[in-house]
Amino acid sequence: MAKPDVVIGLDIGTTSTMAAAISLPDQILAVASRPVTLSSPHAGWAEEDPAQWWDNAVAVLREVVAEVGANRIAGICATGMLPAVVLLDAEGNVLRPSIQQSDGRCGAEVDELASELDAAAFLKRTGNGINQQLVAAKLRWLKRHEPEVMARVATVFGSYDYINFRLTGVRAVEQNWALEAGFTDLATGKIADDLVALAGIARSAVPKRSVSHEEMGRVTAEAAALTGLPVGLPVFGGAADHIVSALGAGIISAGDVLLKFGGAGDIVVATDRPLPDPRLFMDYHLVPGLYAPNGCMASSGSALNWLGGLITPDGANERPHQMLDALAAEVPAGSDGLICLPYFLGEKTPIHDPLARGTFVGLGLNHGRGHLWRATLEAVAFGFRHHIDVLREIGHVPSRYIVSDGGSRSRVWMQIVADVMGAPVTLLDNHHGSSVGAAFVAAMGTGLATDWQAVTQLSRLGATLTPGSTAPAVYDRSYAQYRDLYVRLKPYFHDAAATTA
Questions:
Q1: How far is 486 from 31, CA to CA, in rounded Å?
Q2: In angstroms, what CA-CA distances link 181 with 84, 127, 128?
Q3: First to last CA, the chain
Q4: How many beta carbons lie within 10 A of that of residue 160, not counting itself?
Q5: What CATH number does residue 494 fall under?
Q6: How far is CA 252 from CA 162, 289, 354, 398, in A?
Q7: Which residues lie across from 259 on neighbouring strands?
Q8: pTM recorded for the entire structure
Q9: Are residues 327 and 446 in the same domain?
Q10: 401 to each of 186, 257, 263, 376, how far by Cα in Å?
């Protein structure tokens, strides 16, 4: 029998669950996906159902396994959004919907932590600032509002950690989940008891730490029967979706930048030194010796999905994004004075303001659906430019921009991004996102790959879009207005939140 030569990456994404099977050096053999439902029952909330993730995972794994053959599979690695919070009881039952990374409900708890801690010392120790990303803040909110749930918590971990648990029966947290959660001492790389204690949970509730390309368990007979995977298949530690997206896109040299247009908007830069800054998140790069400072805009594709549903008549168009892109293409740069703040779920980096809200300013009777759509596309691009400004301020030098994920299929949007950045952006031809990067992590874990540089053979680069001749000047002006608008509206956002609380 031939030696297994295929590895699978499984992406538990905000808007879809995707599996990809690859064979090195450069073959993507099979891809399957299923949609995911994001729930926002209250302003600023973002929740999903872990049972749907698992059902989706079973479906997409069965599909790709059937296509490539179970006997060819050597290993699997899962990835997902970070740091989603999944709570289990002692028997392994999910206690409530996950709290997603874009959830902004815990502003009061962030303020509480800030009053208790030395912010500079916490940043230096953990690599991350005191913000809504911290799992301690989310768990404090739950203890205050859902004490009956917190009383039953036996395990706290992330989205792909939960899938790993369903595949193997092993409870573990991946290294970058633990780091962004605020539980890891950056100097030692270990989960610290006192940092976990800030969340008000027992130390035992945060399980052992796993490394992305190291085996954390093997597929059980029960999981094999459901998914079609071989019993005993190695399962590797997992990886944050934005980090494996960067890897899969070939972001492996200092200065490389990935702009990721998924349900949320991620930006990841490869660097050779950690420079913690409270406006950004800090992660380990998968390539040894590199770090991955990064940011996440709470709503990118999810904001467009929402807007498209609102301004497109029911049943009028099965593909509203393409129709609205065509309308936006007829609107000049700057959207005829219409500016959007894309803070529809509050905002994470770089402003860390869960009370910020989505806003359109400058609306007139001359504006139509194309203006609303284009202004939102421009707003996300402005958000990415804000991150680039921060990276430059702290000493990083972005040098190459690659764009990925579903939103990068929109040429209208990507041309806006090039114009706003004032720099070329290169598209990826193979839009399989995090799942391909995760599969390569499994390849490194199994020994099918021995050099991280080999991932570049999977990242097929496509067209490069260059800035237009006049749009960058227009966008310099609009971007300055965008930055000023938030500063002016921040007191209103906070006042309104206090009034409606």
A1: 41
A2: 9, 11, 9
A3: 64
A4: 31
A5: 3.30.420.40
A6: 28, 11, 32, 13
A7: 267, 403
A8: 0.83
A9: no
A10: 28, 5, 19, 21
CA 493 to chain centre: 25
Question: pLDDT by residue (tens digit) across 469-486?
Answer: 999 999 999 999 999 999
In a domain, 279, yes or no: no
CA-closest candidate to residue 71, choices 164, 6, 19, 9:
6
What value does the mean pLDDT take over residues 69-88? 96
State the CB neighbour count (10 A cutoff) for residue 327: 17
Residue 94 DSSP symbol: B
Q: Can you tell me whether residue 54 is helix, strand or coil?
A: helix
| Range 418-422 average pLDDT | 97
- Measure the CA–CA gap between 373 and 324, rounded to whole angstroms: 7
Is 376 part of a structural domain of the chain?
A: yes
pLDDT in the model for residue 245: 85
Which residue carries 């040098």 as its tokens? Answer: 399
Contact status, residue 383 vs residue 407, Cβ threshold 8 Å: no
- Residue 367 shares a structural domain with residue 442: no
Whether the Cβ atoms of residue 236 and residue 76 lie closer than 8 Å to each other: yes
Same domain for 128 and 141, yes or no, is yes
Q: Give me the torsion for CA of 487, 491, 493, 497, rounded to 10°.
A: 150
Cβ contact 154:90 at 8 Å: yes
Pairing of the two strands 208-210 and 172-174: parallel
For the chain, what's the residue count? 501
Q: Is residue 358 part of a domain?
A: yes
Contacts of 316 (CB under 8 A, 6+ apart): none
Residue 384 has pLDDT above 70, yes or no: yes
Is position 267 within any domain?
no
Q: Which tokens is 255 given?
A: 């200065």
Count of CB atoms situated within 10 Å of the CB of 93:
10
Same domain, 187 and 336: no
- Kindly report the average pLDDT of the chain as a whole number: 94
Instruction: Give the residue, 14 or 21, on which the prediction is more confident.
Output: 21
DSSP string, 425-449: EEEES---THHHHHHHHHHHHHTS-
> Is the per-residue pLDDT at 331 higher than 60?
yes
